[in-house]
Amino acid sequence: MFITLFRKECVQTAKSLTYWLYVACLVLFFNSQLGNMHILTPPQEGQENYFDYGFETDITEQDIMETGAGSLVWAYYYDNYMTYPVGFAKSVSLNADEKEEIGDIICELTGLKPADLEADIAAFFETHDIQTTQYEVKLKEGLTYDRFLKYMDRVAEILGPGSGYTEENLRANVQIPVDYEGAVANYRDLTEKDGLTGGYARLFCDYMGVILGILPVFVTATRMLRDKRSRMQELIYARRAPSGTVMGSRYLALVCMHMLPAAVLSVIPTVNCIRAGIEGVNLDYLAWLKYDLGWLLPMVMAVISVGIFCTELTETALAVLVQTAWWFISLMTGGTEMYGGSYGWNLIPRHNTELNYAGFEEGIRQLAANRIFYAVLAMVLLALTILIYERKRKGHLRRSGKIFRNHKSTDQV
Amino acid sequence: MKTEIVIRNLSKSYGKKQALKNVDLQIGKGMFGLLGRNGAGKTTLMKVLSTLLEKDSGKIKVCGISVEHASEIRKITGYLPQEFSMYPNMKVYEAMDYLGVLSGLTKAQRKERIPMLLERVNLTENAGIKVRALSGGMKRRLGIAQAILHDPKVLIVDEPTAGLDPEERVRFRNLLSEIAEDRIVILSTHIVGDVEATCEEIAVIDQGRILFRGTVGELLSLVEGRVYRAEVSRKELDRIRSSYNVTSMITLGNNVKVRFLADTKPFSTAQHCDAGVEDAYMYLMQREGAPLCS
Ligand SMILES: Nc1ncnc2c1ncn2[C@@H]1O[C@H](COP(=O)(O)OP(=O)(O)O)[C@@H](O)[C@H]1O
Ligand SMILES: [Mg+2]
User: Fold this and answer.
1) ipTM value for the complex
2) Ligand 1, atom 1: nearest CA belongs to which residue?
3) Distance B58 CA to ligand 2 centre (A)
4) How far A239 CA sits from the closest chain B CA (Å)?
5) Residue identifier of the C-alpha nearest atom 24 of ligand 1
6) In the sheet where B65-66 sits, what is the strand order?
7) Contact A384, A356 (CB under 8 A)
8) In A75-216, beta strands by DSSP E
């Protein structure tokens, strides 16, 4: 019964409009983010720059201070302060007193008076490429990291929530491109440890996670509301199929149908790697599968389980709200860890580069724990959903509104 | 195992509202009619029988199985809710197939039974159209077909004739009678004509209580020989209503045609006439002191 129901659920899903909207979104998103993916070739000595080969991962306090102070000077000079309170950019305008205070802080940090700034910025970009380099500023002799952070706290206070001057954000803002040696090391990691395709599979997961962390909830909620909307519930309730079979097959079908197009797309980066034909690389032909199952599947399972649970419990579109909130929070907290390595308990782990295998290796235990947690959470929510379904089947937890509607419609006869 | 439903002392409340009060019923093979006005408790009783509601107290055995064993009961009962539909974008055959799987039928069984049942409810030609394109009557017939898909011993249909036109209603009743040949069919209705024509055994339910249990003939005998009809003015009507049980009235201009119950001939223009089930039903309802709904 389970297998047949599963097949029928898959067919039903394949016939629903929301599902094809989901597939379309997936394809469009893939195209826009990874559509013209270029496969990294080995770095050559004497190249103009090595921006494509990743960033330094050992960031010193000195780096943080120079970049942080630089970004403050830049904002002050152009009088353009941006914050990201709920993820969206917001321009903050300061009053004269606040501006003066920022000016004083800059002076404390760098010894530069407001009038000197223009010259300093100009001098910096005499020797650096303005397109690719962040402005950094020389600090006053003897400025300690603690003192620096105190000043930054004050700046963050003036600018309000979501500013880039918290320690976490200051650190995330430092992006120092590697030099030739670093590039060679990073590339060697990519080809030897990641089999080239691994890095791209991870990058694929990073991007696709952003929409797989939300979209499945729409299809799921639609499917779950369909029984009620078509007034089919009682016809199903009264049949012998156990609640576990009804819900379990439905859940499994939703998970498979959502993973299917993602899995198909995930093969494309691997194909690109093969076509790039880089010499001396031992390609990992199944990396995409490992990452689909290990990285994306638990996420899709979790999102769909939230979908079935909330919808079965409330018979409303609450699940969409809940998942949107969760997705949003995940994206926001993930925003400071884009380069990968620290995945925490985020539903949508970020690793926005094909490189940084070292970071991945460091974070893999955490990532595995994270993914197992979500898979287990999904199973728990599924079990709870089955329990709720079983209760409703016996007339509990139901809304009474329907009965009264019945009376109206029969009264007219 | 005997094909029989035994209900003892069944009660069920929704919060403070008591929908069934100490119901005792025994139902055997054939068509059984459950007659009662809206809100009487018919749907509640039928849902309890088909495990869609849990009773508060009492005992129910369906063909020897206690109603607590929901999955066993579901194997042997078919249920057609008062209000139902199916996934509108499914074809008739597809919908039946889906529900057949949920009833645990094998592929071979479904292939055999679905065309047979569609034939029986006269929907063979509509097997390929979408459920949303069915008329009300067709949908009801499809409802019956899905309810007997797994060949249940007990078929429970809740107000199946509501919303059908008179001709469809008759055909539908006949269909149910055919199905009842070898099983229990319980039919609820608030229309006297539905049970009069087809049900051997009936029960009248009101405010959660069984007021009457027996054959249609026995119901008739409650008022046999006491039914009179007369055409009176509106003024006289008030007098009649205060002294007799009025079972029906039809307004004709300034006059009203009434049927009422009296032990002896009440006045000269009143004519004695044959008792109808409607008269008996109305008598039962008024004996309980509840006001008429019409
Ligand atoms: N879910 C419910 N919650 C509260 N009261 C209900 C509910 N369902 C039915 N009732 C009440 O119980 C009584 C019996 O209802 P029902 O069994 O639907 O009657 P019938 O089917 O004979 O019209 C009615 O008074 C109705 O208002
Ligand atoms: Mg009802």
Assistant:
1) 0.91
2) A400
3) 21
4) 5
5) B39
6) B17-28, B4-14, B57-62, B65-66
7) no
8) 81-83, 90-92
d(CA B261, CA B285): 13
Contacts of B190 in chain A (CB under 8 A): 410
Judge whether B73 and A238 are in contact, CB under 8 Å.
no
Cβ within 8 Å of A, B 192-221: none
**For residue range B30-43, what is the model confidence (pLDDT) as tens digits?**
999 999 999 999 99
Instruction: Kindly report, residue by residue over B137-190, the tens digit of the pLDDT.
Output: 899 999 999 999 999 999 999 999 888 888 888 888 889 999 999 899 999 999
Across the interface, do B52 and A12 touch by the CB < 8 Å criterion? no
Measured from the Cα of A400, ligand 1's closest atom is: 1
As to burial, measured by CB atoms within 10 angstroms (0-12 exposed, 13-18 middle, 19+ buried), residue B259 is buried
Interface with B, mutate which of A5, A390, A406 (most B CBs under 10 A): A406
Residues B233 and B236: their CA atoms lie apart, in Å, by 5
Q: Which residues contact A282 (CB under 8 A, 6 or more apart)?
A: A191, A192, A195
The C-alpha R_g of chain A, in whole angstroms, comes to 27
- Give the residue extent of every domain in chain A: 2-39+196-412, 56-176
| Ligand 1 centroid – CA A32 distance (Å) | 56
Is the Cβ of B159 closer than 8 Å to some Cβ of chain A? yes
Summarize pLDDT for A261-306 with one digit per residue, the tens.
Answer: 999 999 999 999 999 988 888 899 999 999 999 999 999 999 999 9
Q: Which stretches of A295-366 are assigned E, i.e. beta strand?
A: none
pLDDT at B292: 47
| Matching residue, tokens 């156990």 | A242
Q: Please, are residues A40 and A52 in contact by the beta-carbon 8 Å criterion? A: yes
- Whether the pLDDT of residue A325 is over 80: the answer is yes
The residues with which B7 forms a beta bridge, in sequence order, are B25, B60
Task: Determine the Cα–Cα distance for residues A258 and A263; give it in Å rounded to an integer.
Answer: 9
Please give the Cα distance from A82 to A96 (Å, whole number). 17
> Mutate which of A12, A16, A234 to test chain B, going by most B C-beta atoms within 10 A?
A234
> In this structure, what token pair is assigned to residue B263?
């032990």
